Amino acid sequence: MSPTESFATRLDRHLERVTRRRGELGAPQVAVRAPALGVDFRSGDAARFHVASVGKLATTTLVAQLVEEGAFAFDTPVADLLSSEVVAGLFEATETTDAAGGATVDDLLSHTAGVADYFDGPVASGSRMRDLVIAEPDRPWTPADLLAFSRERQHPVGRPGERFRYSDTGFVLLGRIVEETTGQAFHDVLHERVFRPLGMLDSALLFHSAPERDRATATAVGGRSAAPTRPVIAPLRLGRVEASRFTSLSCDWAGGGIVSTPDDLLSFSRALHDGTLVAPDTLAHLAEPRNRFRPGIHYGAGMMQLRYGGFSPFLAGLPRPTGHIGVLATHVFHDPVHDADIVLNFASTREMRRSFMTLIEIERALRHVSP
Fold first, then answer.
1. How many helices (H) and strands (E) does the chain have?
2. Is the pLDDT reported for residue 226 higher than 80?
3. Are strands 49-50 and 322-326 parallel, antiparallel or unpaired?
4. pLDDT tens digits for range 292-314
5. In the predicted model, is pLDDT for residue 221 greater than 90?
6. How many angstroms from the chain centroid is the CA of residue 92?
7. Cα–Cα distance for residue pair 58/164, rounded to 1 Å
8. pTM higher than 0.85, yes or no?
9. Helix axes 56-68, 280-287, angle to 10 degrees
10. What are phi and psi of 247, to 5 degrees?
11. What integer pLDDT is reported at residue 6 of this predicted model?
12. How many CB atoms lie within 10 A of CB 247?
């Protein structure tokens, strides 16, 4: 049996067990590509799926590209890029600081700006956003609505630079910075700078744009220049609720509103780490861990690094991949030891543990076939 066959056999056996235990959730989507090892593995279908906070990698990429172009710097104050009306009430400000409290672009990327998390953070009144998504499935949310939610129903969680507190609100502000800097809609910038150049034909920003493949098909069939902006996506579970057709999923935007496929995300991960999208020194700045997100998960600037020894000391010898996870048990990671790109979609907020067990099994399988 060749090393490639050995990898596939081992992972297939693991995924068969996983699929049985997932019951009606069915098989997860798994893709692994390690060219030097001859590994190009797929399991599950190739359907488009909601990537959740994996989308933060794309937002981070756009911000980093603008930094490289000199539009602003990582240490540029947010107040220099967004109006006081946009940032008012979101930051802990004093008599000697502006409405953004002195926060920088890097503070937003590294979740140290002190802004609340509109999606999962505590609220002063009413329901949390995560609960509203389920309770009000037909409700649309705009980026302005998301900022207003934090402004009106939450409080800043600290002064800029003071401590790490994960914040989807901060990534909405980064999306707005991309728009203000480029003069374009956020979704147009995504297509222009990431999706189109990488041939990511099945990727789009849900509720805002259509995948390039759909646009081309619609033009060929009906002569139109654009397709409907709501592509069909794979089922997903918020708790026990199937929510793939909920309009309330519009609560994601620059913090994770992308729909994509395993193959498209493999292409994105490769381009992010091989110098195609950002320069190596820029990537190093983004990936360098600064804070602990959870045991075994450390955070840089818009990117996570996994340290498996934080899960168990018996895993300490595994590589330290960089990438991001999403609340739906979605993963995109690059393993630098095996030069491997890994994409997972377990499509449920209740499947995070099982998804990480699969990620660990992938790393063990890669080590087994590595020379």
1. 12, 13
2. no
3. unpaired
4. 999 999 999 999 999 999 999 99
5. no
6. 26
7. 21
8. yes
9. 130
10. -65, -25
11. 87
12. 15
- Both tokens assigned to 134: 């389920």
**The residue type at 324:** H
φ, ψ of residue 206 to 5 degrees: the values are: -55, 135
Using alpha carbons only, give the angle 181, 48, 26 rounded to the nearest 5 degrees.
140
Six token digits for residue 276 = 């195609």
Residue 220: per-residue pLDDT: 60
Residue 227 has pLDDT above 50, yes or no: no
Going by C-alpha positions, the residue among 370, 363, 358 that lies closest to residue 21 is: 358
Tokens 């279908």 locate to: 45
Query: What pLDDT is stored for residue 230 in this prediction?
Result: 82
Q: Are 322 and 342 in contact (CB under 8 A)?
A: no
170/109 Cα distance (integer angstroms): 8
Say how far apart CA 349 and CA 257 lie, in whole Å: 16
* DSSP assignment of 59-128: HHHHHHHHHHTTS--TT-BGGGTS-HHHHTTTS---TTS-TTTT-BHHHHHTT-S----TTTS--SSS--
